[in-house]
Amino acid sequence: MTTDCEGNETKADPATTDPSSPAPTATGSVSLALYQPDIAGNTGTILRLGACLGLAVEIVEPVGFDLSDRALKRAGMDYLAMSRLVRHVDFSAFEATRRAAGRRLVLFTTKAAARYTDFAFQAGDILLFGRESAGVPDGIHELADAAVTIPMDGGGRSLNLAVAAGMAAGEALRQLRWGG
Question: Strand, helix or coil at 132?
Answer without folding.
Answer: coil
